[in-house]
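Sequence only, no structure available. Ideas?
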Amino acid sequence: MQDDYILAPKSKGTSGSGLSGRIFKEVLDMSNKAVQKSYSAMREAKGFFSSDFERLLLITTRPDELRPDAVSVERLQAVVETFVRDMDLSLPTNPYRVTLRKLWAKLCEPDWRVSLKALCILHVLLSRGTAEDTIVFKAMMEKMRKERSKRSKSRFFDVSRVLGDRPPLGLLGDESSARQCIQFLRHYANYVLQRSRMFTGNFEELQLAKRGELQSTEDLVMQLYKAKKLLSLGLACRVSPDIESELTFACLEMVVFDLVQLFDLFDTSLSLVLDRKSRMFTRWNKDEARVLLRTFSKFRLEVGESIQKELEDVGSLLALYGFKEVPRTVNTRNNPKFQAEVGIEA
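Reply:
I predicted one. Tokens follow.
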């Protein structure tokens, strides 16, 4: 199965088909009024990226172990909210493209701390922006992945380029911590870049499933597959004791909040599928449907326990480093429906 991500439109007005097309169209409709209001004031994209904007990027990606400056990150988000949402994704002056191009340049810098901060900022823009902005960023990234960057001499958002040769500099200046830093960078880069392919900012695709608005069984199964993969990638992002810092925990905090929200959506969506399986899978091979639901249910039971343990392990550490309180529990109740699919007696 291929990921049902939003494809970049071939031209203005092209919004794709299926679930992605519907989401893209909804956002395009929501954007029209905002575009009309802001277009006259921001016709030239270069106006977004004045020396002030460049300074914000330099401040938020400063090569140290501190978290990205919160005030500067908020200012970056505020600037993004003023962007004209032009759906011509090929324009070199499109502000979303310029922002992503600059972040990609930071991602490819040899200092892993700069790369981590750039990833963290990209994660913020993809997950905590407005619905309209996160969808445009997602579509733009998908288009740029097919293009080569002159600066990095690779395709944009190629994770192997992010993990290229780096000097052996860890938080403690030794090779052991350096390897652990690069390992964390690898897992976090995989998570953020895969998240950008699979889901829009607030996991809107699964939000539709939670509200019962997905009519296609295939659409719903696809979203569950993607959620399953992303939850596994998120759990792989672990901060070892030797590389604990504000920076690594800033990245981990973003992942933890994602995991809690995504698990809840996976749990709710799978429950919906099990409630309706008798009529949702009428056209499927019965054995294939049974194996599919057993796989999802087994994963749900296992991943819930893993996320709960992760919250218990990192919650106190995040608080120690001054991060806002993260959830300490997820819903790991013994749901008879999941147990029945796996063959466990309630």
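Confidence is low (pLDDT under 50) at residues 1-17, 30-48.
Hope that gets you unstuck.
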